[in-house]
Write a structure and sequence with these properties.
It is a single chain. The protein is of the alpha/beta class. The protein is 32% helix and 23% strand. The chain has 2 domains: 128 residues, no CATH class; 136 residues, Rossmann fold. Strand 10 and strand 11 form a beta hairpin. Helix 2 packs across helix 3 and helix 9 packs parallel to helix 10.
Length: 322
């Protein structure tokens, strides 16, 4: 199965069929998923709404991978020890790279038009991050020497920004929230750049609402918009938010359901707040059906992210309370 052909073939009309087929294959081949479903007594869903979602915490305690399959790469979530970090065993990196490329180009166009200025210090420190792998792919696709990782050093970022403009490239600043705030507070004018924030404060600064964060970044960088990215170690796909409404739009091979925060097997209506269940059919070689610890709401064009369930670890992307 070629990733590009599969992902680009999916649409609203055939999504449920492929989701159910994916479920059947993963139920039979992934031991931890099968054991969990058998304990629930829900092995034979007839509709997409009946598919059980694997709690995301299982990625910390089990290898979520078909029996007999070797991982080409293991992505680790942020955390202080290996035992506290989710491990996503990737059988074929082409699925990640294809999902990333198609989604990015749908939203922002070809990577070659950008020079990427990445401000991701905490992710670089942790190592084996899916976000770092993602940015590595974008840097390579830009084919430009300016693209790379920068600390929140005003002079270095300002110089890279000017060099990108001089080279006819659009500066694309990709940063974790606290690193972007460090620069914005210094009054760095990035008015011709695309600014994309991902992740929370990682304990470096006081948490802000999404609205507060974006207001400060817009004022500091003198830009009209701040964009956001939603992704996590356990998913191979990303969703982007391009408006002040803070609505993330997933790619066609993904779908979001909102479950009752107190009853994980009941879904709430559009507009009501609850836990986010994420279907990612790019996860063909792990589990496509993830019960996340994020809270959010469904809306017409996507979903919002509005914090985390209580007692969940503080990690991942876009975990700010709105």
């Amino acid at each position: 199965m070629e990733p590009s052909s599969f992902l680009q073939y999916l649409n609203p009309q055939n999504f449920e069929q492929f989701a159910l087929e994916t479920y059947e294959r993963q139920y039979h081949n992934i031991a931890v998923y099968r054991d969990y479903i058998q304990l629930l007594g829900l092995p034979h869903p007839k509709t997409i709404q009946e598919i059980p979602f694997l709690p995301i915490s299982f990625f910390k305690t089990h290898q979520v991978l078909p029996s007999g399959v070797l991982a080409q790469k293991v992505f680790l979530s942020s955390g202080t020890t290996l035992q506290q970090r989710s491990q996503h065993h990737i059988q074929d990196l082409r699925w990640y790279e294809t999902a990333l490329t198609i989604t990015f180009e749908r939203v922002f166009g070809a990577a070659q038009q950008y020079a990427f200025i990445a401000l991701l210090p905490s992710y670089l420190e942790n190592g084996d991050s899916s976000l770092i792998y993602m940015v590595d792919c974008l840097i390579a696709a830009s084919h430009h020497e300016i693209s790379g990782y920068y600390l929140a050093n005003l002079a270095e970022v300002a110089a890279a920004y000017e060099k990108a403009l001089d080279a006819g490239k659009i500066p694309f600043v990709f940063g974790v929230s606290y690193a972007l705030l460090d620069l914005a507070e210094k009054g760095l004018n990035l008015s011709n750049a695309i600014i994309l924030e991902t992740g929370g404060m990682k304990g470096k600064r006081q948490e802000l609402t999404k609205k507060e964060l974006h207001t400060q970044l817009k004022q500091g960088f003198q830009v009209a918009n701040i964009y956001s990215e939603y992704g996590m170690t356990e998913l191979l796909s990303q969703a982007y938010c391009l408006t002040d409404a803070h609505i993330f739009e997933p790619p066609p091979w993904c779908r979001v359901f909102i479950r009752d925060a107190y009853d994980p097997f009941t879904y709430v209506q559009e507009g009501q707040k609850g836990g986010i269940n994420f279907i990612d059919l790019a996860n063909q070689w792990s589990c496509s059906f993830i019960q996340t610890d994020d809270l959010g709401r469904l809306c017409q064009k996507g979903f919002t992210v509005e914090g985390r369930l209580e007692a969940s670890d503080i990690r991942g992307c876009n975990l700010l309370v709105d």
